[in-house]
Amino acid sequence: MALLAGVAACNNSRQTTTPASSNSIAVPAVPSAEAPAPAAAPKSSVQVPKLVHIPVENLPPCNASRKAYLSGGWWNFNAAVSGAANEEMLIAEYRHKWLKFREDQTFDLLVGNKVVTSGKWGWDEPASTLYLSCADPFVNGAWAIKNSGFTMIWIGNSPYTTHGYQLRLYNTKNEPPSN
After folding, report:
1. What's the chain's average pLDDT?
2. 112: phi then psi, degrees, rounded to nearest 5
3. What is the pLDDT of residue 31?
4. Is residue 18 part of a domain?
5. How many CB atoms lie within 10 A of CB 146?
């Protein structure tokens, strides 16, 4: 939880390439030509993040262990913080959403048990960063990942994801509930 509380101090400056490190993949941020509204998202006053092209195709294939970890069940967003006063509205954008990753590096975004969009994912192992490309601007992006067991913390400060949101997801073997 201390990690989530530190979001207010995050640096939200936009860059055009991933930070240079000896092991990370550098790919440019390219705004997407289309910016559809997230499917089935609740009405709120949370600012919709800018939808950008996430170049998952430029990442090397993910290792079998990471594929098995992500695809082993359903992931539900159960916490979101931004350091702003509207955090209850922010979690309302995420709480109803579920992710189902597949080992072919595609995924479905579900609301309840209904698929609302699909996309591709990639993993930069040295940087511990998950890249998601889909039509939902609240999920689309590059997320620094901290994980412990079957709980992940996503940190949204990257050249692609500059809003500074931090999200907690948990994994379950149970299918999402019906709407």
Report:
1. 79
2. 65, -130
3. 43
4. no
5. 13
Does the residue 129 lie in any domain? yes
SS3 annotation, the chain: CHHHHHHHHCCCCCCCCCCCCCCCCCCCCEECCCCCCCCCCCCCCCCCCCCEECCHHHCCCCCHHHHHHHHCCEEEEEEEECCCCCHHHHHHHHCCEEEEECCCCEEEEEECCEEEEEEEEEEECCCCEEEEECCCCCCCEEEEEEEECCEEEEECCCCCCCCCCEEEEEEECCCCCCC
Q: Which residues on adjacent β-strands are paired with residue 74?
A: 172
Could you tell me the two tokens for 136? 């939902």
**Domain range enclosing 79:** 65-172
Burial of 109 (0-12, 13-18, 19+ CB in 10 A): buried
| Lookup: tokens for 55 | 């170049």
Contact indicator for 54, 141 with CB cutoff of 8 Å: yes
pLDDT at 43 exceeding the cut of 60: no
Q: Using a cut of 0.85, tell me whether the model's pTM lies above it.
A: no
The CATH number of whichever domain residue 137 belongs to comes to 2.40.128.270
Residue 50 lies in a domain: no
